[in-house]
Design brief:
Elements: H1 3-8, H2 11-25, E1 30-34, H3 43-55, E2 58-63, H4 73-80, H5 91-96, E3 103-108, H6 115-127, E4 138-142, H7 149-156, E5 160-163, H8 170-179, H9 188-201, H10 205-212, H11 216-220, H12 223-232, E6 245-248, E7 251-254, H13 256-261, H14 265-294, H15 296-302, E8 309-313, E9 316-320, H16 328-335, H17 341-358, H18 365-377, E10 397-402, H19 409-414, E11 419-422, H20 423-430, H21 441-456, E12 461-464, H22 470-477, E13 485-490, H23 495-500, H24 510-526, E14 534-538
Parallel strand pairs: 1-4, 1-5, 2-3, 3-4, 10-12, 10-13, 11-12, 13-14
Antiparallel strand pairs: 6-7, 8-9
Protein name: AAA domain-containing protein
Organism: Bradyrhizobium huanghuaihaiense
InterPro entries: P-loop_NTPase
Length: about 550
């Protein structure tokens, strides 16, 4: 399909064409259409095609600027359609001539000096509406530009008035770019380049096509190429009538080349900032949201209704009781000593983007490229909001061991013939003795990542960890969607046996501590933490673990 055909078939541009067809179908004899001059490319052709396909009417375009407009207008128009002037003695005969039935004429080029004569003709033709099934002749007048309100009233009279103003919107530009084969790729740089192109080209099909062919760095920072184009152009000061301003997102948007030519740089920067903000702000907050999710266990202890985080604005204090509502600075203050270097850098990058865009400043192409590269290199740190969205649904299940330190969980897990992700084994990768002091958030993120990978491949997994605290169990099972089976397996054995096999735990009070608290903590686990979809198996009354 020709690109002009694609353009005029879009929802916005075609809306005005459809209104014309609807009016003609309702036997309107006269339509006045306001459009910029030079006329939008393909406008008359789009009207002609639609009238032929929808109403089977013949349509032609006549530029009367080349004609003698002092002659009788019915003669002028009829002659252009092959009807001799001698057969047309009045407007009524023009309106009823059988040779003009089912004919539509698009008239352009009406001279300002001839407005009164044209206005009288159009009024008479408008009043000669026929209730018969025969349609035509119909005259569609492309209204001359440069008319004041009184002159416009002289020409239009009571005829139907339509305008192309504001007919092209954002979704038209996005759809057009996609249909001519210029969709952005998934990386951040490409998405920002595409967004800035859409916002800067706005309603201009020609500029949109040009900018879509630019390098992405020039799309993000287009001023050098726009300056070059402005110097080579002879564009007039922009207004709607010369086709250099139109509505975009309910605001007047100037053609970007004309804006540069006439020093409207702030106008363009605002549009560029709007485009960047639309991509970069959600990107930055996605990173913050993911980092909060990664350290949810830690943050839940720091920010809650019982222990609010106090934000200070001068002398005013605002309590935050929901850690999901933490801003970048708050998150930085709370997690300064627990983030890995990679997490800290990801937070810093996202925070810098947010501050830049929020002020509002433009982010340079090389900065966006560096941000994108770092993000892609550490994408595994960013967790999705929708757990398991791309997993096969093949009956896989996740089993959580629940039991105190030394209770026999690892021995039981190893005997099941199911893949095991063990928190102790992950600790040993860092410290051979299995002890990792300080925050365990990093360890359990790796547990969640490893178990998620197994489930994603369609296999069952046992997560071998204590899971004594309800929040730890709920954090682990949050990686799986509700339609993946979850099972708690309660495992414990006598205290004497745990102390006998304590190994590296001996003498540190670890076994004794968890043996003391487990009888209380296990109550919630036995209830499936209040979730009816969780199956609970209590092995404590079965064969002792030590003998398996």
């Amino acid at each position: 399909m020709d690109r002009l055909d694609i353009w005029w078939n879009l929802a916005g541009p075609s809306s005005i064409i459809n209104k014309i067809v609807q009016a003609v179908g309702n036997r309107e004899r006269v339509l006045c259409l306001a459009a910029p001059n030079p006329r939008p490319a393909g406008l008359s052709g789009a009207i002609e095609r639609k009238l032929r396909s929808e109403l089977s009417l013949e349509c032609a375009t006549l530029d009367v600027s080349r004609e003698d407009q002092t002659q009788p207008i019915p003669h002028l128009l009829a002659g252009s359609l092959g009807v001799p002037a001698v057969e047309i003695g009045s407007v009524g005969e023009f309106a009823s001539h059988p040779g003009l039935a089912d004919q539509v004429l698009i008239v352009d080029g009406i001279e300002r000096s001839a407005l009164r004569r044209w206005g009288l003709f159009l009024r008479q033709l408008h009043l000669s509406r026929s209730e018969e099934m025969i349609v035509g002749p119909v005259v569609i007048v492309l209204v001359p530009t440069g008319l004041n309100r009184d002159e416009l009233a002289v020409l239009n009279g009571s005829a139907r008035f339509l305008s192309t103003q504001g007919s092209v919107g954002r979704y038209d530009a996005i759809s057009y770019a996609a249909q001519i084969g210029t969709r952005p790729s998934a990386d951040l740089v490409s998405r920002v380049g595409h967004a800035t192109t859409i916002d800067l080209a706005a309603w201009s099909r020609e500029l949109l096509e040009n900018m879509l062919a630019w390098e992405v760095s020039d799309q993000i920072d287009p001023f050098a190429l726009l300056e070059r184009a402005a110097q080579a152009s002879n564009l007039r000061f922009p207004c709607w009538e010369n086709g250099l301003v139109d509505y975009w997102d309910d605001e007047p948007a100037v053609h970007a080349v004309a804006a540069v030519k006439y020093g409207m740089h702030d106008h363009l920067r605002r549009r560029l900032w709007s485009a960047q903000a639309g991509v970069l702000l959600p990107f930055a907050y996605r990173i913050l949201r993911s980092l909060i999710r990664r350290h949810e266990d830690f943050l839940a202890k720091k920010v809650s209704p019982q222990k609010p985080w106090i934000k200070k604005y001068g002398t005013r204090e605002v309590p935050v009781v929901d850690y999901w509502k933490l801003e970048f600075y708050d998150f930085q203050q709370l997690t300064e000593n627990i983030l890995s270097p990679e997490e800290a850098e990801l937070r810093r990058v996202a925070h810098a983007i947010r501050n830049k865009v929020a002020h509002p400043d433009l982010v340079k192409p090389d900065q966006i490229a560096r941000i994108s590269d770092y993000y892609e290199a550490h994408r595994e740190l960013v967790e999705a909001d929708v757990p398991g969205w791309n997993w096969p649904r093949c009956g896989q299940s996740m089993i959580l061991t629940v039991g105190p330190s030394g209770g026999g969980k690892s021995r039981w897990s190893a005997a099941q013939g199911v893949e095991v992700v063990s928190s102790d084994e992950i600790r040993k990768e860092t410290n051979p003795d299995g002890e990792t002091p300080g925050s365990q958030a990093g360890i359990f993120h790796r547990v969640r990542a490893a178990s998620s990978k197994i489930l994603e491949e369609g296999r069952d997994v046992i997560v071998d960890a204590m899971h004594v605290e309800a929040e730890h169990r709920l954090r682990q099972i949050s990686i799986a969607p509700p339609d993946v089976g979850i099972r708690y397996v309660i495992i414990d054995r006598p205290r004497a046996e745990k102390l006998r096999d304590a190994g590296w735990r001996a003498g540190r009070g670890i076994v004794e501590k968890y043996d003391d608290i487990f009888p209380v903590k296990v109550i919630a686990a036995l209830d499936g933490d209040g979730r009816p979809d969780i199956q609970v198996v209590d092995l404590r009354a079965q064969v002792p673990i030590s003998s398996q």
